[in-house]
């Protein structure tokens, strides 16, 4: 590009390193004469200044400080982490091995850092930098526009407030701008572009590029297929029209991000943010504030960490997921999946869709809403609210002491929950599983069957039937009430043959011994009442 300072890799760097015959071996500061001097340092750190004349300075070993000063000088740092400064005139400055600071000074200088992580300072449009691609990770600080295309320098920082241009190369470039309106092009590689002040034009080119945007006037240019890119911004920003996938808000301001048709990852800050994913399968995380997250079309994922966070999804906009570290409800939101994160005790509520609601390791309360839901509590003592016969409760063995509240007929068979309680006043049935269950009825006429395990059955009003299947073990009926017409059904053991000898009074309770360890204890009951209300 015309007008840019360009750098070359075809200059013979070894010629810069070649110094004439040694004039002195120095271990202390030395200042040359007014003539053309030749000085070479020793193995210790040296401080050498050429003074006037066309001088040749060589640092030798050690971390040296060399200054050519006035004249067209040749300055070579050799080994060590050196500071080499050409000074006035058109100088040849070579850092050598080590991490060197290379300054051309005034004039049109040729600079070569050599091996190591070198730092260059450019002040003249006639300066030339020689750096191979495999000679460390290097920085160039410049007051001029820079073209890195033909040189192995990775990183550039501008030192002027005037708008300038930076052109990268095939390496992973880092570019820092200034207060002016800068233009950056990263080229190939995974580049990082930061214009700082001004209205900057940033183009990463191919590779996975990172942009820092600090003004609404900054523009980011990315074409399709040029990598997976990210924008960091402290201002409201939109990715529409830019083939950038990801954006993160900086600072604490109440600002917004808008995605595009790609699969975006949008992250907020500590403020109150608005994130809109647009099309695509988006990932939206508002941060700590009370955020509004709009997924749009696609299968979107929302991260919620504030009770006031609002996830917005319309019907037919994809299969969406909310990941929440706080109590959250999907009511009014067309989201299908709700999952708890972290370890806190949170409550999760679904909607009218067929939801998948999943807890964490805490004690969770899961309510799927009116659809046919799948509720998974995981570790912890979890509570489930079931209102659809198609609801599925998922609990594995050893995952806590769990309770199901059901407003429909429900069974715990195949589910490792311990307690089943019927809600409402409808005539419903409750069935346990192979573990020791507590079954509670509601105000209606209930049939309670604990199945295997040592179960506790409570009817809670209404005409209740306490049903005992074969292998029911040692069960307890807590509120057998003759006035309500309650029945005890042991037909699975007797086959319809009455046997009053199985029923005995034991203190305030009645015991029905069905043999083989299968015993029913009816609390606070009379033998005659039980015999008159038993189904053989």
From TrEMBL:
- One GO CC term of this entry? extracellular region
Its domain of life reads Bacteria
Provide the residue span(s) of the region labelled Disordered. 59-85
Q: Which SUPFAM superfamilies match?
A: beta-Roll
Q: Where in the cell is it found?
A: Secreted
One Pfam family assigned to this protein is HemolysinCabind
> Biased-composition ranges for Gly residues?
59-70
List keywords of the entry alphabetically. Secreted
PANTHER family, A to Z:
S-LAYER PROTEIN
Q: Which organism is it from?
A: Asticcacaulis biprosthecium C19
> Per its record, how is this protein called by name?
Hemolysin-type calcium-binding repeat 2 copies family protein
């Amino acid at each position: 590009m015309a007008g840019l300072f360009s750098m070359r890799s075809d200059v013979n760097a070894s010629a810069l390193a070649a110094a004439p015959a040694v004039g002195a071996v120095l271990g202390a500061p030395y200042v040359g004469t007014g003539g053309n001097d030749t000085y070479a340092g020793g193995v210790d750190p040296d401080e050498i200044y050429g003074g006037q004349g066309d001088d040749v300075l060589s640092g030798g070993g050690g971390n040296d400080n060399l200054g050519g000063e006035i004249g067209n000088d040749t300055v070579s740092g050799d080994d060590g982490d050196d500071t080499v400064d050409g000074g006035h005139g058109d100088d040849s400055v070579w850092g050598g091995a080590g991490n060197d600071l290379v300054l051309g000074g005034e004039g049109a200088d040729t600079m070569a850092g050599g091996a190591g992580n070198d730092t260059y300072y450019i002040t003249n449009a006639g300066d030339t930098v020689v750096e191979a691609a495999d000679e460390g990770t290097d920085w160039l600080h410049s007051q001029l526009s820079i073209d890195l295309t033909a040189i192995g320098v990775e990183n550039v920082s501008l030192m002027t407030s005037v708008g300038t241009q930076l052109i990268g190369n095939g390496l992973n470039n880092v570019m820092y701008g200034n207060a002016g309106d800068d233009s950056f092009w990263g080229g190939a590689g995974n580049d990082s572009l930061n214009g700082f002040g001004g209205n900057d034009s940033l183009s990463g080119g191919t590779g996975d590029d990172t942009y820092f945007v600090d003004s609404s006037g900054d523009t980011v240019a990315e074409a399709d297929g040029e990598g997976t890119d990210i924008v960091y911004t402290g201002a409201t920003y939109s990715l529409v029209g830019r083939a950038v996938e990801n954006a993160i808000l900086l600072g604490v301001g109440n600002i917004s991000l808008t995605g595009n048709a790609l699969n975006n990852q949008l992250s907020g800050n500590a403020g109150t943010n608005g994130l809109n994913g647009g099309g695509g399968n988006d990932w939206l995380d508002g941060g700590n504030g009370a955020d509004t997250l709009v997924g749009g079309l696609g299968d979107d994922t929302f991260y919620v960490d504030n009770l006031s966070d609002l996830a917005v999804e319309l019907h037919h906009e994809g299969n969406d997921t909310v990941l929440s570290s706080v109590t959250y409800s999907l009511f009014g939101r067309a989201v299908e999946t709700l999952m708890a994160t972290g370890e806190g005790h949170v409550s999760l509520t679904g909607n009218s869709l067929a939801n998948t609601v999943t807890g964490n390791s805490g004690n969770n309360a899961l309510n799927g809403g009116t659809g046919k839901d799948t509720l998974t509590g995981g570790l912890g003592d979890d509570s489930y609210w079931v209102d659809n016969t198609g609801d599925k409760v998922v609990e594995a063995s050893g995952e806590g002491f769990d309770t199901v509240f059901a407003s429909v007929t429900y069974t715990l068979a195949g589910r490792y929950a311990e307690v089943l309680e019927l809600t409402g006043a409808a005539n419903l049935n409750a069935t346990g599983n192979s573990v020791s269950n507590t079954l509670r009825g509601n105000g209606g006429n209930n049939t309670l069957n604990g199945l295997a395990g040592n179960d506790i059955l409570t009817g809670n009003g209404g005409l209740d039937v306490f049903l005992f299947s074969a292998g029911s073990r040692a069960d307890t009926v807590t509120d057998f009430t003759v006035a309500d017409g309650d029945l005890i059904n042991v037909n699975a053991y007797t086959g319809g043959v009455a046997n009053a000898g199985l029923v005995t009074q034991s203190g305030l309770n009645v015991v029905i011994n069905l043999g083989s360890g299968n015993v029913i204890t009816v609390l606070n009951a009379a033998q005659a009442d039980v015999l008159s209300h038993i189904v053989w």
